[in-house]
Structure formats: C-alpha cells, structure tokens
Amino acid sequence: MSVVIIGGNECMSREYANVCKAYNCKAKIFQKTNGSIDGFGTPELLILFTGTVSHKMVRCALSKADGKNIKIARSHSSSIAALKNIMQEHFGRVV
Predict the structure, then answer these.
(1) 3-state percent breakdown (helix, strand, coil) of the chain, nearest 5
(2) Which CATH class is domain 2-91?
C-alpha cells in the first residue's frame, strides 16, 4: 500500500514515514514543490496537511488525483497524532 503526504513540517518527514511504515504503507512526502509534483504515482491514500501547504500545491495534488481511484484525507494539523488518526481511519490497526 502507498500513501502520498502533501505538506507538513520538513523536520517531521522521517516521523511521517515511520508512522506509515507501522501501518505497512510506503510514503512519499512532498513538503515543497517548484510548481509541479513529480513522481506522484497512484497511491491508495492522498493526505493533505492544509495548514502547512500552499493552495496552489493542494490544487495541483487534487488535479493529479482527479479521475483516479485515490482516497483523499485532509487535516489542518500536520502533527503525528493527526497522521495516526488518518492512518487508523483508513487502514485500521497498526501491524
């Protein structure tokens, strides 16, 4: 299973990846972009941390996900607890 995280704090990227790994998911994390998101792929879940990302980046991510069978989760908070809640909701218990 794969997850794409858009936004969040740069210093927390390793922690985000570890939380996703605990749920048997590979994570691609994009905190900054230069106008486009390369290597987005087709994840099972797209997580948008809306408090720490630009509107342009959110629109770009949503347009890439449009038409594909991708679940989208939004959170204004980019904390580890918020990520754990999202992962729990979509993937169940920690493996």
Answers:
(1) 40, 20, 40
(2) alpha beta
Domain ranges for the chain: 2-91
Q: How many CA atoms lie within 13 A of 59 on its CB side?
A: 4
36: amino acid identity, one letter: S
pLDDT, tens digit (0-9, with 9 covering 90-100), for 12-58: 999 999 999 999 999 999 887 665 666 678 899 999 999 888 888 88
* Phi/psi of residue 13, nearest 5 degrees: -60, -40
Name the pTM for this structure. Answer: 0.89
> CA distances (Å), 67 to each of 36, 62, 70, 73, 84, in order?
18, 10, 8, 16, 27
